[in-house]
Amino acid sequence: MLNFCEDDEQRETVQKTVEGHKNEYKEIFYINNNGSQSNIYCSAKLRYPATTQERLLIGTLKGKVSCLERNENIDCQNEFHSCHDMRAREVYFSYIPGDAEIISMDSFYRHQSIERSKCLVVGVTLILLKPNDSSAYEPQHYFNIYIALEPGTEFDLDKLAQVCQHQRLDFAPYHLHHAEILVNDIYETVFLLAGSDEKIHLFKGDNQQCFAEEPCKNYFPEFNAITGRVIWMHVKHCDGFKRLSAFGCDNGYLRVAYADSKKNEIIQVWTMFIDGPITSVRLFTLTSEKELISPSAEETSISPRPVLCESSEINLLVTSAIEVAVVYLNIVEKGLNEMVVLDQSDHFDSVTCSCITDLDCDGNNEIILGTYGQELLTYKWNFSEKYACKKVSFYLACRKEFPKPIISTDCLDIIGDGMQELVVVSLTGIHILQHEVESAAEKLLEKIIRAYPDKYLPMFGENYEQKDKHLPMFSESYEQKDKHLPMFSESYEQKDKHLPMFSESYEQKDIF
């Protein structure tokens, strides 16, 4: 059922909303790629231990890999959020010749057999043209897996890049993804690689950290007998050892499966065909609070395993090269029957990429679409009141134009300030965007007050009730922090030590 923009009045209201939110994102950093074009698969997130700051690996069709990270130079520490404290340094991965083209990348953290610690694993697929006996160039495909085995180097990216497991492939690789399998009641992470042979290949590591291909149907029976070449796939684990998996193919074939990870059995499968290639599929919840962290003895803060509290909360985003992007609500209970269209998603050429995250810190996930028509589209959701029962609808909340077509998007905390930044890769470079920090801070403060009303509500008094007009964090009572804001107390005065986000550069908030 289409719940978006059902009449001209609603469409006009949404258009006004878009006009009023065109500048929600500000570009805080840009890197020119100097002609080294990337593709929709060439990025991988990294998070090192003992920090929330993340990094992003970006590969190019010229075989180069850059690590996008915050510059730790002492001279830049006082320039927080400025365009001078970011860098994209090149990482020299072994077994990637200069004439090779990188096709896809992915990374995850894996348990080591020694002291049950974790180590970083990076996968890179590439194509290399080599001359044959007839002097013609024959494409050869490889899958390189990088993992540092020497103690103390598990998270040293430069040393990891020199330890490679080089594997020849007899098919052209596409999307490289990682997912978890349940082995002896312990979750283990594996690589999933889509191929031109209309199969999804599984690569599993042993106790010696050596990866080898194993039959995918032994762990993911829902990936058997695929009709078409898989362009994108996504696996999401649910409560009760269940999982949802989805993939879309070049011929428009879509398959969604609900399976039992412990019994390795398929519970239910939904399939359909749409017009044109499917460019991405994403399983997600409407609110970011629904995605919980499940602590266990096997996990650390380095790479926690996200577990959804209820499988009935999961929805599916599907983007197409020629059709509108759609969201299927409540997959487990309703399958592919309840569909919501993302309006105007087909107005800017093909949708090339997507990501889902809470960028503005309001607790609700936003859908971000990148298009070949140089537009970045952000959708938010609400409940439609037009029906007897409430139904979810999505509206276009923000549009941002870029000088070149958008290739890929990623959401991560690359600055290390606790907010999600949006990394947009275009044909000519890398753009880092951030939501308005003041607006996000107001929403976070409101959430804190709602979570602990007895403790923090009295300090704001009646002014807090008028939060829709003005948030009291900048009111008169804010100036009397010694009396009304004990949470800032003495440590607030030492902002350079305890709260870097309120450092000297915070006063220059106009720069971001």
Description:
- The protein has 512 residues and is mainly beta.
- It is 12% helix and 42% strand.
- It contains nine helices and 30 strands.
- Strands 1-30-29-28 form a four-stranded antiparallel sheet. A four-stranded antiparallel sheet has the order 2-3-4-5, with no helix packed on it. The chain has a four-stranded antiparallel sheet with strand order 6-7-8-9, with no helix packed on it.
- Strand 11 and strand 12 form a beta hairpin.
- The longest helix has 15 residues.
- The radius of gyration is 24 Å and the shape is globular.
- The N terminus and C terminus are likely disordered.
- It comes from Hydra vulgaris.
- InterPro entries: Kptn.
Oligomeric organization of the protein chains: single chain
Radius of gyration: 24 Å
Which class do the helix and strand fractions yield?
mainly beta
The overall pLDDT, averaged over residues, is: 78
Query: Looking at the structure, what is the overall shape?
Result: globular
Give the helix proportion (percent range): 10-25%
**Low-pLDDT stretches:** 1-21, 76-84, 292-309, 465-512
In total, the number of strands is: 30
Strand ordering within the main sheet? 1-30-29-28
Terminus-to-terminus distance: 40 Å
Number of helices: 9
The percentage of residues in β strands lies in 35-45%
Main sheet attributes: strand count, strand direction, barrel closure: 4 strands, antiparallel
Organism: Hydra vulgaris (Hydra)
InterPro entries: Kptn (IPR029982)
Protein name: KICSTOR complex protein kaptin isoform X2
